[in-house]
Amino acid sequence: MSPRTQKFASAGLIVSVFVLWELICLAFGISELILPRPTQIVGAFLEYAPAIRPHAWQTLYTTMVGFFFGVLIGLSLGVLIGSSKLAYDTCYPLLVGISSIPKVAVVPIFVLWFGAGTVPAILTAMIICIFPIVVNVSTGIATVEPELEDVMRSLKASKWEILWNVGLPRSLPYFFASLKVAITLSFVGSVIAETVASNKGVGNMMLIASSSFNVPLVFSGLMVLATMGISLYAIFAFVERRMAGWAMRKDL
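and the corresponding structure tokens:
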């Protein structure tokens, strides 16, 4: 199947889902308080677009800042854990324990430390995306073929040179895979914090809309989040093809 055919098939599937959604709501007379039709959601988005815009920018800002710091920390820890068995045995159990804590449970702690607002949302977005990056990067480095390392050692390469010339390039596909997962999780973290401890952002807007039973506006917020998430996912997928295309199957 050609790339153009694949794109048309994907677009056709998406359109079919929304058409079916619309027809089911009309056929069964489903109230907009339960499940608004796609046309009602789009209508609410157009009606409240000026009010949605600042909330969307706020969520995008907190997500990207938290994601940036999460990538820095996750990449650093991933390199350390993947290249050192001592670091793996020491840090990995702690990371698993922290990752197992529901992130909504730590938001009140961030509010207590930093007050309500942007900082708790940034921190929540940051901590929720660290673990997948650490796991993928450390796995990519730790699974380097021993033969490659033996060749580098035979050339008198140091451990740092082996890591830089073999380990890090070998972990690139894992790293980009983790980025595509982490960016979606970062939006989850931002919205969680915005619903608990913020007066701005898509999460806060959806909370206010649901309290006033404006369900189409709630779904409009979900549509905005989905659009931003898909857009950033596509950007990272494009960068991945440019930087780690050598690791992909040619027939995909």
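(Above: one complete record from the training split.) The radius of gyration is 22 Å.
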